[in-house]
Every structure is written in C-alpha cells, then in structure tokens.
Amino acid sequence: MNTEPVLQIKGLTVSFRIRDQYYPAVDQLDLTINKNEVLAIVGESGCGKSALALSLTRLHDSKNTRIEGELLFKGQDLNKLSPGQMNKIRGSEIGMIFQDPLTALNPLMTIGRQIEENLDYHTSLSKKEKTKLIYELLEHVNIVNPQRVYEQYPHELSGGMRQRVMIAIAIACRPSLIIADEPTTALDVTIQSQILDLLKQLQSETEAGIVLITHDLGVVAEMADRVVVMYAGEVVEIASVYELFNNPLHPYTRSLLASMPAANAEQDQLHVIQGRVPSLQNIPRGTCRFSERIPWIPQTAHAEQPTLNEVGTEHWVRCTCYQHFHFEDEGKEHVLDGIAGAK
Ligand SMILES: Nc1ncnc2c1ncn2[C@@H]1O[C@H](COP(=O)(O)OP(=O)(O)OP(=O)(O)O)[C@@H](O)[C@H]1O
C-alpha cells in the first residue's frame, strides 16, 4: 500500500454553538489519509461523521461552528485558507459526493451546464474542450447516453443516475482527495453496489485518497482499506479493514459488528447496542465515553482520561476497557483473553 499522505489532520476539534456555548462534536482528532486508499469513517448517527466531513470541505456554517486544529493538504492548512482560496480547492483538488444529489444539484440547470459551470470555475478550457470532456466524464461514470443526459434536468434522472452525475462532477478536475458522505445510503441495494464499484474503479484509476463516511459496515467491508470507528466525537479504534473485521477490540466496534446482519447470519437475533449516542451537551468528557452503554463492565476497567493506544501494527484502540469487555449475556470466561494482536 502506498502510504504517501494526502491529508494530515492534527488535533481537529469541531464545535457547534448551542445557546452561546460551544460543544465539540469532533474532539481532538488526529488522522492521516493516504494516496490511493479508501479510509472509512463509521459510527452510529450522531457520532460526528458529518461534522468531520463538513470541516474537511469547510462547508460548515461559520457563525455557529468553530473549527480548531490543522488540516494539512498539499503543504497548506485548509483551516487557515480564506473562503475564496478554499472555493478554488473544493471541487477541483478536493471532490465531494454527498448522500442526496438532488439537494446538491441545481434543479433549474441542465446537467451539462452544471458540470460546465464547475469547469468554468476551475479550468480555462474552451467551450469545445469542455463539451468533449463532459461527454467523456459522463461516459466514464457509465452513463450510456451522455448527449441526452447533458440536456436533462436533475429531476428527470433516477437517484442512481444523479449520483453518477455527482461523481462525474467530483472527479472532473482529477482531485487527489474525495470526501464521500454516505454516497449510497439513499439508493436501493443493486444501485448501491454499482455506485460502489464505480467509486472503487475511479479510485484505482486516479489514485485519489477517499474518505468514505458511512454507518453501513457492509459498505465498509466492500470498499475500505482502513477503518476509523468514531463514537461521540472521538476515534475509538483504527485498523485495516481485515484487522477490524477479524480482530475488533473496542467494545463499541465489537457491538457494531455484532449488530451487523451479515456477520450474524446464523444467529436468531442481532445484537442491540443499549442506549444511544449522547447529545452534544451530554457527552461524558474526560472519561470513557462508551462506558455508560456497557454498564455491566466495572468502572475500574476504564482508563482515566482514555487515550488512543497502538496495540498492534497500525491498530489503535482507545481506553483499556477492551481488555475486560464481554457482552452482557456472555459469561466473563468469554472475555478477550490474551487479546490477539495486543502489545
Ligand atoms: N449545526 C449543528 N448545531 C448543533 N449541533 C449539531 C449541528 N450539527 C450536528 N450537531 C450535533 O453534533 C453531533 C454530531 O453530528 P453529526 O451530524 O456529525 O453526526 P453523524 O455521525 O454524521 O450522524 P448522521 O449519520 O446522522 O449524520 C450530534 O450530536 C448532532 O446533533
């Protein structure tokens, strides 16, 4: 695996203002995204995945959001750029794909015109060159009739076709980083896998780094090289996709995997994770944030001020509770013994 970094995130904290006080939704996050890798960010709703995506693209509402830390991309800190400088990078060197293309596309503009507008902003191609490139891009994302789609409006296309158009726009300027926030969540299953295949194909052609935000572990298994598991604004585990599925350590990761249908084909019932992700104001800070959802694990199992520790090659886990974790209905004899891969 090529480990040339595309984006280095250092000490990123993203806070939202609620009644005149700022609360971190992403807390002190350090992460590197490499060229030619798909880095998946997973977690339940409310864990801070979208807050992270918004901060990387700087598409947040700056009146009520505070972003601290460094976002080092090609030798510059995105967090220090002016809105104008960021506009130049966004849509060219950083591509974006969101869950709902219908809200991202302009309903009053034909598809061809929208892609052209993006090219106008980021390139100095002639009209003829742009039209040729747009047809090529549409073909590249497997749209069979690019001339027709060029003339169509977003509402005339299916959800899958609209997502292909979004992907065409995202890759138009050959970005080195693509942020894909739940890119297939709104699509039905067969279309989902076509779009994932397309993303995978484009990634191997362009060698871009992709940050793939999803709550769907099936998507992670299919797409990711590395996985970051987030809980209540913090990273709780980072590992290669193989390691994560074969040797998950953090109680939250293990709970997420146990609640995944495919992993439990032979079980009668899926695991249900007790409780819910706390709201921003109620996140327990300075202690293990997941502890309240595994109350049968004694408090002494958790570290004070839990940190992310390297427990194996490129495998990081927060807190010490993973060494003592068992599911509530399991006897303690099932506690991870020896902790494969642990130092
Ligand atoms: N603009 C905002 N103002 C206040 N709180 C916010 C804002 N946006 C998000 N939050 C809160 O920040 C936390 C993280 O939200 P975020 O949307 O990043 O989570 P997520 O993991 O992406 O969830 P989902 O999958 O539902 O989008 C949640 O508690 C959410 O309620």
Features:
binds adenosine-5'-triphosphate, 12 strands, alpha/beta, 343 residues, 2 domains, globular, Rossmann fold, disordered C terminus, four-stranded antiparallel beta sheet, 11 helices, eight-stranded mixed beta sheet
Largest sheet: 8 strands, mixed
The number of distinct helices, counting runs of at least 4 residues, comes to: 11
Helix content range = 25-40%
Strand content: 15-25%
CATH level-four homologous superfamily name of the largest domain: P-loop containing nucleotide triphosphate hydrolases
Bound molecules: adenosine-5'-triphosphate
Strand order of the largest sheet: 6-7-8-3-9-10-12-11
* CATH class categorisation of the largest domain: Alpha Beta
Protein name: Oligopeptide/dipeptide ABC transporter ATP-binding protein
Family: Belongs to the ABC transporter superfamily.
GO molecular function: ATP binding
Organism: Paenibacillus hunanensis
SSE order and pairing:
Blueprint: E1 5-18, E2 21-34, E3 38-42, H1 49-57, E4 65-73, E5 76-77, H2 83-89, E6 94-97, H3 101-104, H4 111-122, H5 127-140, H6 146-151, H7 159-171, E7 177-181, H8 189-206, E8 209-214, H9 217-223, E9 226-231, E10 234-240, H10 241-246, H11 251-258, E11 308-312, E12 315-318
Parallel strand pairs: 3-8, 3-9, 6-7, 7-8
Antiparallel strand pairs: 1-2, 1-4, 4-5, 9-10, 10-12, 11-12
The structure holds adenosine-5'-triphosphate.
Residues 16, 18, 25, 43, 45-51, 64, 215, 279-280 line the site of adenosine-5'-triphosphate.
